């Protein structure tokens, strides 16, 4: 049918090494979950627990290792017709943190910002990270992807926010990753 399948993850798609996440396969309409579903990992890297498995309702994945990082899709079977399977969901990226040393994050010119001012968030690291992810506890659904630039033996990325709303408070986290394993991240700052 035209129903859109999607894969959800709780509590977050950004998961610390050793942590757990719960995966569910849904109709986009949210009317009900698929009773049975199967997961596919895009890079086909071997996560033995997934191979040919059919899950019911939800799947608790963990303790998570760097091998679990990557993009997943799910396919559900319809309750009224268990042999009929849905379309594949869009990919969901699971990022594993705590693998590399954490970057530093600072606000320029400073963390105290008045309404109407612009602030620059700067992620930097003495490790060369090709990518940084900026995660807002307030607004962004997906972590914001920033490209790291080489800087004195390490790397950094700047993100300008502003002009700030009347209540600009909120916490931000920054992660770094390297190109050959983009879903394996540093500890968050």
UniProtKB/TrEMBL annotation:
PANTHER family, alphabetized: KILLER CELL IMMUNOGLOBULIN-LIKE RECEPTOR 2DL4, MHC CLASS I NK CELL RECEPTOR
UniProt protein name: Immunoglobulin domain-containing protein
InterPro entries named among the record's database cross-references: Ig-like_dom_sf (IPR036179), Ig-like_fold (IPR013783), Ig-like_Receptors_ImmuneReg (IPR050412), Ig_sub (IPR003599), Immunoglobulin_dom (IPR013151)
Residue ranges of domain Immunoglobulin in the record: 10-97, 108-188
Gene3D superfamilies: Immunoglobulins (2.60.40.10)
Keywords per UniProt: Disulfide bond, Immunoglobulin domain, Repeat, Signal
A Gene Ontology BP annotation from the UniProt entry: immune response-regulating signaling pathway
Top-level lineage group: Eukaryota
Cellular compartments per GO CC: plasma membrane
Source organism: Rhinopithecus roxellana (Golden snub-nosed monkey)
């Amino acid at each position: 049918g035209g129903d859109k399948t999607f894969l959800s993850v709780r509590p977050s798609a950004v998961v610390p090494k050793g942590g757990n996440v719960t995966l569910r396969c849904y109709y986009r309409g949210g009317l009900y979950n698929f009773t049975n579903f199967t997961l596919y990992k895009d890079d086909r890297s071997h996560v033995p627990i997934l191979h040919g498995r059919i899950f019911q309702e939800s799947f608790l994945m963990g303790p998570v290792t760097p091998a679990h990082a990557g993009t997943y899709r799910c396919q559900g079977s319809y309750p009224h017709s268990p042999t009929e399977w849905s379309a594949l969901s869009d990919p969901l990226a699971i990022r594993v943190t705590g693998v590399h040393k954490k970057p530093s994050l600072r606000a320029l010119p400073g963390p105290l910002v008045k309404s109407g001012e612009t602030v620059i968030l700067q992620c930097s690291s003495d490790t060369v990270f090709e990518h940084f992810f900026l995660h807002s506890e307030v607004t962004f659904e997906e972590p914001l992807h920033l490209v790291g630039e080489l800087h004195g033996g390490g790397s950094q990325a700047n993100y300008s926010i502003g002009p700030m709303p009347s209540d600009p408070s909120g916490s931000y986290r920054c992660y770094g990753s390297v190109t050959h394993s983009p879903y394996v991240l540093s500890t968050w700052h």
